[in-house]
Amino acid sequence: MQEKGTISIHTENIFPIIKKFLYSDNEIFLRELVSNAVDATQKVKRLATLGQYSGDLGDLTVEVSFDKDKKTITVTDKGIGMTAEEVKKYINQIAFSGATEFVEKFKDAKDANEIIGKFGLGFYSAFMVAHRVDIQTLSYQEGAEPAKWTCDGSTEFEIGPGDRKERGTEITLHINEDSEEFLDKWKIQQILDKYCKFLPVPIKFETKTESVEDGKDDEGKPKYKSVEVDNIINTTEPLWTKSPNELKDEDYLNFYKELYPMSEDPLFWIHLNVDYPFNLTGVLYFPKVKNEFELQRNKIKLFSRQVFITDEVKDIVPEFLMLLHGVIDSPDIPLNVSRSFLQSDSNVKKINNYITKKVADKLGELYKKDRKGFEEKWNDVGLFVKYGMISEEKFYEKGKDFALLKNTAGEFFTLDEYQEKVKANQTDKDGQTIFLYSTDAAKQDAFIQSANKKDYDVLVMDSPIDSHFINHLEQKLEKTSLKRVDADVADKLIKKDEGPENVLTEDQTKQVKEIFEKAIDNQNFSVEVEGLSPEELPVTITMEEFMRRMKDMAQTGGGGMGFYGAMPDSYKVAINGNHKVVDKILKAENKEDQTRLAKQAFDLAMLSQGMLSGKDLTEFVKRSVDMI
Length: 628
Fold this sequence. Notes:
This protein is about 40% helix and about 20% strand. By secondary structure, the chain is α+β, with helices and mostly antiparallel strands. Helix 2 crosses helix 6. The radius of gyration is 35 Å and the shape is elongated. Keywords: ATP-binding, Chaperone, Nucleotide-binding. It comes from Echinicola jeungdonensis.
């Protein structure tokens, strides 16, 4: 019996809204239809398991096909199918209330997932690309009659007898003119690879050519021939669905290469598997990131029952772990998930906390089990650990036990170990323990050597996150502060007793200051004459610790630090009044020679920090040749 009717959506203009506002995400129509086909297939398998279906299940492969000439895309399954009554119930009635409010609320929406997820419109995403949709279906139920449903994108439909001979459903989309880009083999393959690569039921799309062995040649070597085989686009049992005790390291590495073909092997991985108080499986890999701080983000793929959702997992994965790679799969996150859902859902927050704990536990376990191996990985792992300790209080509490500090000698220490190491020699007169650090050991070598002469230890803090990590450590460690090794001359870095007295008289000190100010002639350099050890350099150029740190943070995107980043660099020029070079300058025959010697000493200090370039460097070299 043929029947016509009106789809129960309570408003005439719902379809134009679906088409208009879903346009930017129109490729998800294929994900929705294939996911529905897989659900129908799994349901018939479940019914057979429960003894509620006794027929032959047969080949359960879901097939996607297209016809460029007829301008159609078809998704076919051999699942439970539907009766005509079920079609009317599930397809014709889009059940939601307040249609007028809905239309007004979502007419300008940008998030396609939000509308689909909120109102169960997965099937109707077909009308994003189709001007007509046909359904041919036959229910698994004994004695069921095949049914056909047709809709042209308006609220009117036709339903009547169908001609499908086997259990399941076939949905045919008649593609509209605006969407003919989808009538392309490679485009469809790309979408299926993106969303359906790990679905639990085989998905066939077209065929592919494979080379198979075909006997031996005269020399006994194998011969090969090309054959056409089904192109099954998915792996039905991906690695994260298996138990860790079934898997070897090789399996995890092969899966990583499947996900990221061009990447280096990861350092290690964490297999996630929890079923209470939420369901979650997955594998997270620690990649070799070194200093490519922003380059590796959005590498974690979020799935729901093996259907790909998104690789923007900011609200599910803690911010500091966004640099990890891998897969997270949770049925507790709906397939059609919006950003607003992720931000407010309680399960998502629990998942976030769980992942933080699992990562901290794994790192702690690696540290305890093989400290030497952990130290070897620290250059890569340290970025995650430091970022986590800054951004997550719970992670800091665990991380402080395995976070490592590395010194310029290449030795590693935990926070407690390092405090113990330097406490005796690097505590100032106010009882503050001073950690000295270098951001560029090669460039700051002269300062490091001066510090080492006083038996001071110097840390290496040269990762992109270290300027922020330093501030965080000062907040957390009691009576401890950190100073960059070139923030002052070695005698002044850790203030203890009064240092050496300046042997110059007050008039000589004033004269030296004036000579150097004239030689430098730059208001960004302030000159001070100090009493330092005669073994120290005659001129030392430093930037005050606070200003240097603010500028470092501004460079790595520190919030509110842009003001400091825009300020011109200002330096302190410390003249060692006890050095023989200063004595030589004072004894020079005339003011011109004094200025020339002072300029030479200043340029040497600039050169030692890599700050001399261009015309100034050329003049320095010429002056040096003249003075030899």
